[in-house]
């Protein structure tokens, strides 16, 4: 029996050793970064009554250091997730969900792109990113107990750049190509205009193109698992002539309320002339939208056809692909994805492929390469910085014309009364003289289908200073933007560009209300911004038509009849508002994502009615009891719906049956420049609001929930853009530095 004991003891030793190895291997095997070159940075942070930081430094680099410190103070939790993704280590924090991002990190060659392209950026841009990395490192060194993952710090500018490379493509829907290719499920893509000589809708099957239904998964630091475009956004710009007063720019983004693509509000100002207020995402040294003294802009997601898929002809071994009759070696490498499972981190091996086309994914149908606009570029890092410092429309358009920001609509306004709409996208420069169905899966053996670069800025749809005096976008096609007299005509835009043909309810409402208004003053614009009405068009008309035709009895008939009395206004006043809120979202999602079939109306009605009865005991509770804004101990009612201008877009269902908002109206900024020649203070002013507060992951902070009531009440707070105003209203003012 002694040998049995010895064997058991040996087995225990082996198991303990294996456990220790799995619990400790990842930090030692991970990519390590060199810290930025030693340099001292100092910034002044002034917190306003809502905790929003005004960050001042003598140099732009000092300010970038301060940005990292301020945001770490408020949301170091999320910043670490973003940094872990930029190092291919998010799976070591978030398990299998995180490993999905790490796979994309390797597939898209985020690190390789950063290593190749980041050193080519101008020195002042790189200085900004090195300073931002130094700020992250400083906060981590000062607060070691908050660090989630060993050897995550130090980071450098290249690490931050790799995060940009990884994140940007997901905003034009690259996840909706990668995920079904990985899973071997049918592809679907945004439908655009007809390409002459080809069917617009590819045949059903593995090579069909459409978008998987991903709208209602949980919030991740990247929009993987949910269509970024589905998050929405609204934007308006109005001239002084139309407003009867100031040039007005309204930014109304619909982002997740938490996580790595949630807005963080800040103002930056330096002795070198950088002065901008707005919002960024964790992992950025500069705001992505907002305004400076002279001009401003905001963004909405657009959905051009930015990605082409190629079916490769492979040899039997799967190691070579044919191109123009010759065999080429497929680049392949094995990577290790760290996947946390409880107290251990498993090393999962995956093979990553790449061809001359771009990243390659293998599934049961074969090998598929993808090529997308903005691929293998980091120029957006420099472009956003230059846009922050632009002083007039010409300088701003010069930066836009670089086509460095891969996607998103831009709505612009400035102190001179100019307004502009640019359907911005680094759309592939597909050869128009080559006969191909760019909406389908392309022949990967033809090199003439492998385009280089993007189309010229002059080819993009854009409107500058329309006679109507207003511009808007609500994730709609660019052909409704400024009113009938000024709108772009679709026939004037090449179908090869793949510009989407789609309206949203928000677009229909905005276009109608703007077109009907004689004067777009502040009061009128506020009514439009917070409008909660659905037009009976598109998917809404289809759904109500199905309800009218539905045969139902008993409780189901009662629910149907209640919906047929609805006034199409999600304003918390009608008996049918709650039931309609539950019904509409999935039908909106189906149309938005070009699904071949809408949900079954009878089944959806049954599920919605059952939910309300189970949790509220009735099918007609006040909608404000159902849809809630929740953070910590604060629990407030909301209005608006999934596709209304006052947007309560997507939610999680809590245990009590209430719907807790996870994305919809998020950062709102209202900017006004007094009309040229007007009396009094001619300086720009703005107001803003966030759904929660600046300290998004700091429950102990007074700024964790302090904007919630204002947000629910449709109110805005002042932005202290000017340094003297920030100091005059400061609740705290302090210096941050990495000096010894």
Short description:
The chain is of the alpha+beta class. A ten-stranded mixed β-sheet has the order 19-17-16-8-7-6-5-2-1-27. Strands 3, 4, 20, 21, 22, 23, 24, 25 and 26 form a nine-stranded mixed β-sheet that branches. A six-stranded mixed β-sheet has the order 12-13-14-15-9-18.
The radius of gyration over CA amounts to: 26 Å
**Main sheet attributes: strand count, strand direction, barrel closure:** 10 strands, mixed
Tally of extended strands? Answer: 27
> What proportion of the residues form beta strands (DSSP E)?
15-25%
Describe this structure in words.
The chain is α+β, with helices and mostly antiparallel strands and 740 residues long. The protein has 19 helices and 27 strands. 31% of the residues lie in helices and 21% in strands. The longest helix is centred in the first third of the chain and has 28 residues, at 2-29. It starts with a helix and ends with a strand. Helix 9 runs antiparallel to helix 10 (393-400) and helix 14 packs across helix 16.
